[in-house]
Amino acid sequence: MENDTSIGWSRISLFSKFQLFACLTWFLFRWTEADVHYYDFVLSEKNFTRLCSTKSMLVVNESFPGPVIRVHRGDTVFVTVHNQGYYGVTIHWHGVKQPGNPWSDGPEYITQCPIEPGSSFTYEVNFSTEEGTLWWHAHSDWTRSSVHGAIVIYPIEGTTSPYPMPDDEEIIILGSWYTEDVNKLVAEDLKTGADTPRSNCYVINGQPGDLLPCSRESTYRWVVDYGKTYLVRIVNAAMNAELFFAIANHSLTVVGMDGNYVKPIITDYIMISPGQTMNVLLTANQSLSHYYIETRQYDTARPDVTDYDQTNATAILMYSGNYTAPDSPFSPSSLPSYEDFRSANRFLDRLRSLASKEHPVNVPLNVTTKMYITVSMNQLLCPNASCDGINGNRLVSSLNNISFVNPSTDILLAYYRNLSGIYTKDFPNWPPSMFNFTQEDLPMNTTIPIQGTKVKVLNYNEEVEITFQGTEVLNASENHPVHMHGYSFYVVGSGYGNFNNETDPKTYNLVDPLEVNTVGVPKNGWATIRFKASNPGVWFWHCHFDRHLSWGMNTVMIVKNGGTPETSIRPPPTYMPPCTLPYITWVEDFDDSLGDVN
Q: 326 forms bridges with which residues in the sheet?
């Protein structure tokens, strides 16, 4: 064996040896240079006053939004969550891929059970290729409305971002405000089958802004210096709304999205879906004065549905220096109206990955698995129309006509320990029947899904293409921001109407498609993504409208191990929040080569 090895090594070219040495040197450099950070998140109830009323709500470290996590690319963060609240909570690190470490991904009953009151749990958050802005949020009930914050990821030390160095930066988090206890409202609505509550207003960095009652003094203010350029990190943490955003009289240069770089585009406004993040450059080059930063909902439901949150949240960009402040800040004339789909599409159509030598794209070209997934609103029939949803029935939603049901123990533990009876491995690649998905007034039999805890299993390194198809079931079509945990993916195509598998693939962009972790599936349209299943684990897919998530527009992807320790799920940490198992028929050590044991 020694002779075989030495002969093989002698045949390797000098150049190949140099490449190997360089790779090993780079790996060792990164291993020694990557930093480890520690944070404590204390969850507790605190009173907050907005819109002239006060309520108690759960927050992290007594702040709303919560603390900012700052790292460099490739760092590791340990966050110990101390739950001093009244109910169980989990935390998700949105957009962080967590290579081989789904144990710290966070979605309730998918990768862990809740951190119960009076207990603590430490997350290990492993950064890899992400660079830019991501965010963290609660992933249990609707608690993320008050439990969320930004994640800032700087380039590796000694390197720079692919745009001129800004003079400073600002974080802007767009959120939702409910004057009542939103979890109680949602729990009652889910019990009765009714629609879930609309937010009472939107907020910018936790404040409604001075266009709304009792909000003038608390309006968020950002002071800038004339002539300086700022990197603005924008997070849409709203619960159920895509949002338009603009700053009066100032252009924005979009340079990043979802922890990836994009080709710079100059725009007067952006449209951002819940779950998404954007990095934009702003140069303070206007007359010394005050300028509104403003956001409002982009609504894609039927025109006759007008009960959405129509508030405009504002903050104020204020120039430093000596000048007379105006009676009222300038307003952004470029902010599109609530239902301006043309402006939304015009913005989205311009977004492309940077696709440079330093930040290349790697679009899978040898697809081994294709999926076509319908995204629908649905109903479950109630006896004698006794529920409070549409037609006296219960509102639900589905993917491929399957409305997901959370198990009572987490799927990751069940998969790792081969526990039976928790889920089934039969999430389908196709809808159960094909019809004109975008036709109005579809028949009753298209509106009723099946319920189940069905997952999709992928082999390691499969190259996957998924087309998400929006539908007009229940005449309830709208955009759907679909988020995938554990991965980013390339959006190779999108369009309106039913996907045509002969003509539409010819339009795919395989050169510089947008790389994101959350994609907006157009109202009555489709979006196609590609990714390589190279991150083993149990990963959640779901619509990032929380009302749709609560109704079952979710599924789980299990990516099997690759065959080496480096391509396998890591062993679980010594402590995970305990689950109550409904029943277990047998338990064995983890072996994902087993058949469909569930």
A: none
Residue with tokens 């390197």: 159
Residues facing residue 175 across a β-bridge: 203
Please give the Cα distance from 579 to 113 (Å, whole number). Answer: 6
Block residue for tokens 């220096």? 321
Q: In what helix (H) or strand (E) does residue 267 lie, and over which residues does it extend?
A: strand 260-267
pLDDT in 10s for each residue of the chain, 598 residues: 333 333 333 333 433 443 444 444 444 444 446 899 999 999 999 999 999 999 999 999 999 999 999 999 999 999 999 999 999 999 999 999 999 999 999 999 999 999 999 999 999 999 999 999 999 999 999 999 999 999 999 999 999 999 999 999 999 999 999 999 999 999 999 999 999 999 999 999 999 999 999 999 999 999 999 999 999 999 999 999 999 999 999 999 999 999 999 999 999 999 999 999 999 999 999 999 999 999 999 999 988 889 999 999 999 999 999 999 999 999 999 999 999 999 999 999 999 999 999 999 999 999 999 999 999 999 999 999 999 999 999 999 999 999 999 998 999 999 999 999 999 999 999 999 999 999 999 999 999 999 999 999 999 999 999 999 999 999 999 999 999 999 999 999 999 999 999 999 999 999 999 999 999 999 999 999 999 999 999 999 999 999 999 999 999 999 999 999 999 999 999 999 998 644 333 334 445 544 443 4
| Whether 431 contacts 401, CB under 8 Å | yes
Report d(CA 242, CA 253) in Å as an integer.
20
Taking a C-beta distance cutoff of 8 angstroms, is the pair 145, 176 a contact?
yes
Strands 36-50 and 53-60: antiparallel
In Å, the largest CA–CA distance within the chain is: 85
- The two tokens of residue 423 are 């889920």
| Alpha-carbon span 575 to 196, nearest angstrom | 35
